[in-house]
């Protein structure tokens, strides 16, 4: 429990109207998008300025409580789940788009801006912010930067990190720093900026973010095609790459997922196929049309029976609905949905998918697979009942084997969701102890009292230090 | 001086045939591409494997000498200039291209591979490695990663960092680690990989590097056009951006540079104009041709008297020669050529260029300006005689004012050359003390004895610790 005096000081910093501590509020902010993780905070506050964030962190260092920054809470690794003795900071109210510069192709925003709102604002000006996490309609840019969010356009356009130019950050000590610059080219000193991107709220809190934009593609086409085997899907990806085509989106759904989606959304999908592949091509109209023909030819050659194609926004949205509703559709099958995101090199995808099917059978858990074929980022989704402890154990074994295989194939235990609480126990297996120790030391340099989003990604024993010890260690 | 016993142990580690210590060798490796920086090493060695690099670094920690990794020595910030009591490690002999994967679009190379060789090898397969530093014909991939090298294609394709997937690194302690993965999507733990990119040889030594590749553009056009004023050049850049065109190359030469080039290469350039702008467009033929027409229309509207255009490789190379020979041409005018690379947001370029002309006049130094219009990365080049101490002082004042202005405009003191020895004294002005202190702490965590390329970017007082103190501090 945080002391009453500390909470009183906190309330004075943020103002009564920005201070929430009813049981309902604590319950509401006790979890995020990650299943089976819950912890009530001692209080929830809305910081209205960088200066307030600073003051809160100074107080946290003085009083020895933890601070957990939160965007929209859509994260899938527990990054914004509170820890014991913590205060949650809500950023959605800090949601100004400060500038959109059409010559420098940059946008400067507050951390709480919703990603989809930024996308539509820049698109009105003929510009384009490519990162497109599945949560874009609700997630914040700050949360996206904290998790280095990926999404559907990774293959052609990369991830959030590739679009962050500058960050205004409040360090765990409460000190503000400005990382990066508005120049696309900036190599002064060590690249501190990029270690803050994807730091899952543990190294600093972002207040404003300057992003790089692109011109909006002139045209796009979405195509959907069924394949009879996972191996053929692999061949399709390989032949697309060998044809030197880089789709903006290259997604798939496996049989279990297709059936769940069809059952849920009634889209008239073929339920007797091994996989459905979705392709989006964007760019200049003439190029997109030529590439669409090549893609169709490759698919037909590999036996795709029917190829749906959409050029209008409405038709495209309808086709994408199959992929977009995958998670919700699967979620209906069982009380608990565990969505993971191991990634492997593109060429290892078919092998990885067959392994996942094998592991699911052996552990007798219901698994649906879908995800980003183009960048090798899979979303094996385990459907269980968290009250069935044996099923929970079997699902854990399934994921453990899945992660080990991903690493063995030269991939990663997480491609875009982050490590957080959900995957911290696998981190050392994936990166080795030396790297996790290095990460711990970097965290300790920035946050000696371990007040900022502690115990995410990895544990630090100083977390268990008493408040007075913390005071001794306070940076001067 | 490194002790005779330490040098003997070093010779045994690398083998006599890989150990150089003649006065000629020491002189040959006492400098790099940066003017006015010279320091003889105690020895120069060729490590033939990662294991040998490991052993050398362990010895350096035991014996308390410094290790300076060196690619081709083409760096322009002194990154590979030896320090007192140092051994230079030469990487060009580690030059195997280990694999080129046409489905995953990756290349795995040893650190000593020459960048242009990698480019031509992947282009033979219809692939493309975009980073294109001016030194590409001689610089190594390892050196490019160490400096996060930029180049001519930054606007459209970004810099070296955007293409590094995985790094095999030997830490200063001698311990090997593997950073990143072959997956394009990888967010496990903190992003350690990217702080090693651009770390100027001070955090670790790269042995193998896995790079991301793109499909090779189908077609390209190079255009050259003169403008009567710097302000018009700014309008040209702005209108190009507003037309949503992203050239692969957008370069310029100012009057002084044009005259030097014409005098040197006799290309028939117009010497009575304020600036020459070079544009390269690449992509699908139909798109490139349409964009070329738009660019020409914008240029004509802004008064460009003549527009040269080249579609064949030979013609394009001829046009590019004006830009490529800028440095050599300017270098002929005076004994000493100081090439810098401040960067500013694109829209600030004209203002910045006028400032540079003003500073050059006020400090009465001869300055030629050229560089990367598209990404705001300028190369003010000061031509002096280093034996004229007053002229040296005036050139220093010129650059100091240039860097302060770049930072004031939201830019950086270095866009692509790095901080090294040449710009370390400006680093704190550019990033603030808090950031430099953080950089120091990160360096100290990785290199407590400060043996690896010490005193580059910033100084660390432990550098001046005695050998025995170093031994005490040795990591266990």
Q: Summarize this, please?
A:
The first copy, chain A, has 476 residues and is of the alpha+beta class. Chain A has helices at 4-14, 23-28, 50-63, 115-123, 141-147, 154-157, 193-196, 230-242, 255-265, 285-301, 313-324, 326-331, 349-362, 389-408, 424-431, 433-446, 467-473, and strands at 19-20, 43-45, 66-70, 86-90, 97-101, 106-110, 127-128, 164-170, 176-180, 205-212, 214-215, 219-227, 249-254, 275-283, 308-310, 336-339, 366-368, 370-372, 377-378, 381-384. Chain A is 37% helix and 19% strand.
How does this structure look, described?
The structure is a homodimer of 476-residue chains. Chain A has 17 helices and 20 strands. The first copy, chain A, is of the alpha+beta class and 476 residues long. A 6-stranded antiparallel beta sheet of chain A has the order 15-12-14-13-18-19. In chain A, strands 5-6-10-8-9 form a 5-stranded antiparallel beta sheet. A 4-stranded mixed beta sheet of chain A has the order 1-2-4-3. In chain A, a hairpin with a 4-residue loop joins strand 5 and strand 6. Chains A and B meet through strand 9, strand 11, helix 8, helix 10 and helix 15 of A and strand 9, strand 11, helix 8, helix 10 and helix 15 of B.
């Amino acid at each position: 429990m945080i002391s009453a005096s500390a909470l009183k000081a906190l309330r004075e910093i943020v103002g009564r109207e920005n201070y929430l501590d009813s049981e309902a509020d604590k319950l509401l902010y006790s979890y995020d998008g990650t299943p089976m993780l819950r912890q009530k905070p001692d209080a929830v506050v809305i910081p209205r300025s960088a200066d307030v964030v600073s003051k809160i962190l100074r107080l946290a260092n003085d009083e020895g409580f933890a601070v957990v920054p939160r965007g929209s809470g859509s994260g899938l690794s527990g990054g914004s789940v509170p820890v014991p003795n913590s205060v949650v900071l809500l950023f959605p109210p800090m949601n100004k788009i400060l500038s959109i510069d059409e010559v420098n192709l940059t946008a400067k925003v507050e951390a709480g801006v919703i990603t989809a709102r930024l996308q539509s604002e820049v698109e009105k000006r003929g510009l384009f912010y490519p990162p497109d996490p599945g949560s874009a309609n609700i997630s914040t840019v700050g949360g996206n930067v904290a998790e280095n969010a990926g999404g559907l356009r990774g293959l052609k356009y990369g991830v959030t990190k590739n679009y962050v130019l500058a960050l205004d950050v409040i360090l765990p000590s409460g000190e503000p720093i400005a990382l990066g610059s508005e120049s696309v080219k900036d190599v002064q000193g060590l690249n501190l900026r990029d270690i803050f991107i994807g730091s899952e709220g543990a190294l600093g809190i972002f207040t404003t973010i300057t992003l790089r934009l692109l011109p909006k593609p002139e045209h796009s086409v979405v195509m959907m095609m069924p394949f009879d085997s996972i191996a053929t899907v692999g061949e399709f990806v390989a032949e697309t790459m060998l044809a030197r085509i880089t789709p903006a989106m290259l997604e798939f759904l496996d049989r279990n997922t297709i059936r769940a989606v069809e059952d849920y959304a009634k889209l008239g999908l073929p339920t007797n196929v091994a996989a459905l592949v979705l392709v989006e091509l964007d760019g200049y109209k003439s190029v997109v049309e030529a590439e669409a023909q090549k893609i169709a030819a490759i698919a037909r050659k590999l036996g795709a029976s029917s190829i749906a194609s959409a050029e209008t926004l409405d038709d495209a949205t309808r086709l994408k609905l199959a992929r977009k509703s995958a998670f919700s559709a699967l979620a209906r099958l069982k009380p608990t949905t565990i969505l993971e995101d191991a990634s492997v090199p593109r060429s290892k995808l078919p092998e990885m998918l067959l392994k996942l099917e094998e592991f699911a059978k052996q552990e007798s858990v219901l698994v649906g697979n879908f995800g980003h074929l183009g960048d090798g980022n899979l979303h094996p989704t385990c459907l269980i009942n968290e009250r069935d402890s044996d099923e929970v154990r079997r699902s854990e074994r399934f994921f453990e084997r899945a992660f080990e295989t991903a690493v063995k194939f030269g991939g990663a235990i997480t491609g875009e969701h982050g490590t957080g609480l959900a995957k911290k126990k696998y981190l050392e297996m994936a990166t080795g102890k030396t790297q996790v120790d290095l990460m711990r030391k970097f965290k300790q340099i920035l946050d000696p009292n371990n007040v900022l989003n502690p115990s995410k990604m990895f544990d630090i024993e100083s977390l268990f230090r008493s408040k007075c010890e913390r005071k001794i260690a306070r940076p001067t």
